[in-house]
TrEMBL record, chains A, B:
<dbReference type="Pfam" id="PF06089">
    <property type="entry name" value="Asparaginase_II"/>
</dbReference>
<protein>
    <submittedName>
        <fullName>Asparaginase</fullName>
    </submittedName>
</protein>
<feature type="region of interest" description="Disordered">
    <location>
        <begin position="342"/>
        <end position="383"/>
    </location>
</feature>
<dbReference type="InterPro" id="IPR010349">
    <property type="entry name" value="Asparaginase_II"/>
</dbReference>
<feature type="compositionally biased region" description="Acidic residues">
    <location>
        <begin position="354"/>
        <end position="376"/>
    </location>
</feature>
Amino acid sequence: MSMPSSADPTDPPSTHAELFPDNPVLVALTRGDAVESFHRGAAIALRADGRPLLAWGDVERPVFPRSALKPMQALALLEALPDAPDLTPERIALHTASHAGWLMQVERIREWLEDMGLSEANLECGTRDWPLDPDAARELARRGGRSGPVHHNCSGQHAGFLRLAQAMGAPTAGYIGAEHPVQRAVTAVLGDLTDVDMATMPHGLEGCGIPSPALPLWAVALGMARLADPSGLAPSRAAAARRLCAAMAAHPDMVAGPGRCETRLIRTTTGRVLAKVGAEGNMVAIIPGHGVGVALKMDDGATRAAEVALGLVLEALGVLSADDRAALAGVFQPVERNAAGVETGHALAVTAPEDGDGDADDPEVDPWDEDWDDEDPKGPDAG
Amino acid sequence: MSMPSSADPTDPPSTHAELFPDNPVLVALTRGDAVESFHRGAAIALRADGRPLLAWGDVERPVFPRSALKPMQALALLEALPDAPDLTPERIALHTASHAGWLMQVERIREWLEDMGLSEANLECGTRDWPLDPDAARELARRGGRSGPVHHNCSGQHAGFLRLAQAMGAPTAGYIGAEHPVQRAVTAVLGDLTDVDMATMPHGLEGCGIPSPALPLWAVALGMARLADPSGLAPSRAAAARRLCAAMAAHPDMVAGPGRCETRLIRTTTGRVLAKVGAEGNMVAIIPGHGVGVALKMDDGATRAAEVALGLVLEALGVLSADDRAALAGVFQPVERNAAGVETGHALAVTAPEDGDGDADDPEVDPWDEDWDDEDPKGPDAG
């Protein structure tokens, strides 16, 4: 009776505690009168100068931000094409998107490919079984359609990669490879915006085939803060960041899709808060008016929890109005219903216990600490 | 800047630590060369006399076992109809199932309803958007079909509830209600098999509308152990338990569906290990040859983790042969691939660190304790 030796990822150089930090519970799901499941994670909000507003859990450990990196990655295209008329705000929003796969999104991506003299066959993202959104999948099924690369939730980003390859005079084939000029440019932007030496980070492969780097959560938030407040960046990069934020604010339906968390948040706040999900429980936010960036990662990879945890962070930052809160209750405090439509429970953002249990890293700024309010009495609104 | 008071489920009577136990990491998912996500949970394996073989994490806290209760719940029907010829082993397996929604399953349930003089309209489980299994959903979509109550993963259990109502001379309408004779009989069986006073337990509503009681994890495992070894039960109940296990062993395709974890496990072990998943990260196993019951619940509700954690428990119990292990590698050590079919990472069962960190409740029997092997040197094989 022995444990399978192949099942032990705790070999050197990492220890069990480093691999699996004891992060705080951020979200609970109830059933009837009790908690059914709960989700742990880490979250951080920073200003562009690196000053933290909140930090919960282990924000040092490298995590794979996945598609939450897209707003940063998009700067490579925007800087390469500062004034190309074909790169419309709508297409910029699609380039930052994990789109739901609705016909109205897919058709715009097809048009973009045609404008480039390309087609769906040039997309190297692969084909998913269904569009990301179940309603969009049903729409496709009802029309008798079949899922292709253009339905992949990353196809808008990939269309932009193809456009970047053309702009660079590089071959379009192979644009997903780590050594292709497109991905080298994208990786360089990530390193610049986060102050991280990308060569030292763990890395993997994305669901859509491009490189998937890991980054400390603080670095992800720092990059988002610099998109929110690009005043410290070089002028051409700062202009690209402003253009990016304006495009996401103007086209929330393209960033995700009708009914989805990021789209509803951007629309409700009329772009005061921009957000982007990443697979495996990642979420980032860009808050331009306050110059704040947010990054969070749920330990277990649950998107349902990342959405509710984003609400907790935005509440803690004081950036939601009473009207916002009411309009977004379905996103940040969702009610669970069964197949007959009867309420069975709900998701709750969870405040940490008074003793700070679960905050593994003793963060510099701990909103659960009663003294924290004294340190920054008005939150980001004072900034 | 304050936390939303409505978001605090830590009000009395439960404390934060009671609601959110510090359970051990049981499963990790890698991307490239690093851990991407990880899952905590609790697990216990018992003999029918209550003697624990292993206990990891908090096995005292009530959890909602969801559909993992179905094998126990099925005894109500089997005891009411000890020799009815229409209650075939195939239908018994469907009554314990969370079926995938394949045509071959749906047609058998329709036939069963017709045999009772009933139809799909008598099912009160509600309608899900799609069958549970994506492949089954695609099958339905390709045929131009629409999802109805019979496609709900619980429709086989509900067909059996209707049969039980007829057997009891009770009205079929309203059979999902807590006060209906069918659900009262089902609740009574659960209390008997687990030695728990069901009236004292938290309760909620199931996804399919029936009562959803919570139970301590040890009690769930005890009930499964008594199904595995019914020698201590009343003769009629013991006969029903044996009939149940034989039906699940004979019809693995009906218990879940082709390709799914439980079906593959039952088929590979030719019924030496019976398993049943429950929503929100629940899994149980019945090991008749050893008289052992297993129950586990992932904190975060992830089915993908419950499946891998079941493999870890079965390894710890020593019930898998080398051939079983090889045949089930795709279930218990799954490789993750992206949309292009390229490997991006894998899921790993995780052994606990030597210091026992994360075992909240100091379980009586701790397999991570070096002395444990001495206590039970041969595992369940010795029983």
